[in-house]
């Protein structure tokens, strides 16, 4: 597949309560069997296999902050079960000893829920069990839901070996389960995750497959993932305050009919390594073949900042991989028949900024026709800020008026408010405070905020709404 923080100080969201009721039956079990409820379980540490007391029991499983929990191999939350994780809890994924067997990881199956509600000062941390942790030490987190995708039926999520001990499929019929609820991830940090089972068959930092909009995803950082930081395989889930720091591959990857909104997101490229598939800020496909399968991938992005490399030499070189094939890609690669709606975004530090790839499907033509939207966006590139592309070969600036320094496709620049820059200093015109400095402790979130007099702060809805200010930083991990 595609291989696939700024400090966000919002008041901690308060949740009135969560109803832990499910009428879903488990695979192969009659509804009557599901009427039996176990008392709340504190499981044995390390966690392994399928949690709970069996497929016929609706369990509530509780991980307390007083225990340093371990994930031994892939650990499954069974259908209709609920996993509660207390604020301040640390969960360590055990490192795999084999290139073909995933290390520790958490899989929340269809119909199950995870309730992981940390706070800004007491986050829930998923990390490596190694004293000297490294990217890819453990597998990551997978949420599987019943929301619709453009697969012809339910499929097993990628990255998991065949014949898992619990149902690892995802997706549902179009429109039927799009409000599906897989629970809550809030103030959660995921460090050093990612696993490649085989080529194009990987587990990301956070994998979201067929997840519905009833799920809450808010204040989540993925730090040094070995594949993508966040990948959305179909579904309708909305997410906010997402931070990707030093992902090997893409920061935010959407495909297979994903139609949710990603709001307030920051991505920081790893300046020391890139992936063999090329590392992008955004990557978006309808599917791997660029077919017209429905629902069409059509994510909505609002208030996004993607920070690439500090100079053109670094953005251009092959680096970081044993095979010598690692390469940085684009601020956003939009391709394979995907659609998009981007408003209020900043991209800087890649050779190419926003790329419309026409090799498979009609992503570029849909944009020309107005099906896809790009507004109020500031795009820097060392070579070209707006480019059309075919099979990885950038061709030309797309509708870019060099004299006016504006992006003008199908509407006036005054309407769209997009501006592109090609300068040696990627931040010269965009004017973020200090985008390439990573403090040892995050005390200066203003590094990724546009200067008060800069156009990128005053256009669109950026002023006062980016929520990127200094303050509560306990939930973030920085270099």
TrEMBL record:
Query: According to the entry, what is the taxonomic lineage of the organism?
Result: Bacteria, Pseudomonadati, Bacteroidota, Chitinophagia, Chitinophagales
Organism of this sequence = Chitinophaga rupis
Q: Which domain of life is it from?
A: Bacteria
Signal peptide per UniProt: 1-16
Q: Which UniProt keywords apply?
A: Signal
The name of this protein is T9SS C-terminal target domain-containing protein
